[in-house]
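Lecture 7, part 2: worked example. A protein chain together with heme C.
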Amino acid sequence: MKHAIWVFFLALLTSCAQLGNKDFALPQKVTFNQHVASIIHHNCTPCHRKDGGAPFQMLSYHDVVKRAKMIKAVTADRYMPPWPADPDYRSFVGERYLTEREIAILDKWIEDGSEEGDDEPPTPPVFPTGSMFGKPDLVVSFRDSVRIDGNNLDHFMVMKVPFEIPQDTFIRLIEFVPGNRELVHHMNGHLLNYDFDKKADVFEGSHVVRDVDGSTLETYYALSVANDDGSFPTLTPSVSNYLPGVLPAIYPKGIGAYSVSQKAAFLIKNMHYGPAPKEAYDQSYFNVFYADAPPQRPLKEWMLGTLGISEVQPALVVPPDTIMTVETNFKVPQDVSLLTINPHMHLIGRSFKAWATTPDGEEIALISIPKWDFRWQYFYTFHQMLKIPKGSVIHAEGIYDNTLENPNNPYDPPKMVIEPVNRDMKTTDEMFQFIITYLPYQTGDENISLEPDSSLFKY
Ligand code: HEC
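Predicted complex, written out as structure tokens:
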């Protein structure tokens, strides 16, 4: 069973070797059992299943045939499976996209009458219920369920999820489990560690600030994040990130483990709930798995752009009916190895591209997102650690579209959209951020694979 699932994930990772090659032959007659089921099972079912986060299941012939036309439409324009990064520019762990041939097979299946076929139906993939990694050492849940207003709008929130444990220890892995799988869309979580004497009550203050994205001092005060003397606890960034269908970050042993204090909290800076037609609630939780040793190489993070270490130029002020390009540049102060990157923009973002230029003038491709989709903000992990030499400049470039051509424009007619600097970030404000998880470079890093370690899967 474990083996079967592992093979299934490997298939997901490697499913698309021949994109762009239109020189392929199609079967004479396409049937579900013989050709279509395996494409659906590998590329769609991880999300389109019970508790998978997508709105309907796609396992059996009957699930799929009744939506055949819609499936054709969403695969032809590459809306599904959602993978905004251009795989020809840079390929990442866990990427999911269809080859031209797979899209053509789905298309021909409909042309051929969408038949089930006489072959044995393939066995649908099996997914775990509960944790992917066995029994957690600790479960940390939201204290109260969070109300999501039923007004058909996206909601972004900032939250604190405090906890106390018997002693300081180390965390190997954190798995976020959404309570309301239909509405939880993405979550980016950080870890706060308190010195025992500096915070009498980690549970005080509100636990949720609504309709903001990204914390500023205002949200920190509302959530009572600070120590009792007003100083701030230690923040370990990006310890847990969630999107439907995505595995948590699992780095090689010794990398990416975290120290955790007796008094601690998860700080969720970006909690995105999708639109709800009527009032709904969510009580999500974290499964925490301890490590037996301290992290040998603790992860580090740079945040470029808005609220970060490099300026956005020109200032992110996008007048109505305007398309505008901004950039940010950061000079790498030492040899580093990159592990994971996360571009972040809001609704009027149109495209995102980042690369590094070494002191020798060599260009290292990082990521290209030709069609930005704020719903799919992945943390993209490189297949191997990627060395960026000292003195290289990391460039990130974003295009914003504040016209009505942009279907995600929240205003009709378009309004001035800005990046607020000294107040909380509303979803309708804009951001331009590029978050980079890295380590100081060590010889041989470029040979270290970042594919998830299969021995951790416990089912
Ligand atoms: C990573 C998770 C994920 C994968 C993989 C995925 N979907 Fe989806 N799908 C979703 C979610 C979530 C939605 C709900 C709409 C949204 O959030 O964009 C959705 C919506 C849809 C819709 C409805 C679109 C609409 O306009 O209402 C169709 C059809 C669909 N998916 C087909 C597919 C097919 C076919 C595949 C595989 C080739 C696939 N999906 C793979 C998550 C996924």
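Confidence is low (pLDDT under 50) at residues 1-21. The chain has six helices and 21 strands. Keep this in mind for problem set question 3.
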